[in-house]
Amino acid sequence: xxxxxxxxxxxxxxxxxxxxxxxxxxLNHDAMYWYRQDPGQGLRLIYYSQIVNDFQKGxxxxxxxxxxxxxxxxxxxxxxxxxxxxxxxxxxxKVDRSTGTQYFGPGTRLTVL
Amino acid sequence: DQQVKxxxxxxxxxxxxxxxxNCDYTNSMFDYFLWYKKYPAEGPxxxxxxxxxxxxxxxxxxxxxxxxxxxxxxxxxxxSQPGDSAVYFCAAPNTGNQFYFGTGTSxxxxx
Lengths: 113, 111
Prior knowledge:
Structural class of chain A: mainly beta
Mean pLDDT of chain A: 92
Number of helices of chain A: 0
Mean pLDDT of chain B: 95
Shape of chain A: globular
Order of helices and strands of chain A: EEEEEEEEEEE
Strand content of chain A: over 45%
Oligomer: heterodimer
Order of helices and strands of chain B: EEEEEEEEEEE
């Protein structure tokens, strides 16, 4: 089945540790995105990538890093520089730059202790 | 700078009645709009979309209306069902393929 997978569903880390969240898609989509959702807030864009080996900062990129070495993979690293890393992280993908729909993965809940 | 706004954080509706969720936008360059439905601890699922060349798009119980002059869109759910209880987000992409989301409206359908 085609889709977007994020693993793990729940992740716990100690303060000061970097952590990498996985996002894989087999939809052959060019564009991929990372969002963060906090209680009572909408989805805020962290980073997005239109094609392999290229990505752009979103509205809240500070304290995060990404890579796009393969079309199907867009991992997000939450670094120790991120002040409030505890949140629900969502990965999404879209066919290409043309008008179209973004599809989301199931999300990863990160808790920093 | 919130380019897409949902001013009602919550809405309660009786089962069988109509639910109307509203969304406003500020960027007149937006030409495509989407509605997503989200359950807690899950990713949003695409519900319905509308292009700016239309003022209405219907899919079963869901209809989206677009008023370009008012920069306003609304999602109508008729009839509302308990399974519709979720958070609904409206969204719009800019020309750079970056999506802007509203803050969401939590819909509760009361049996």
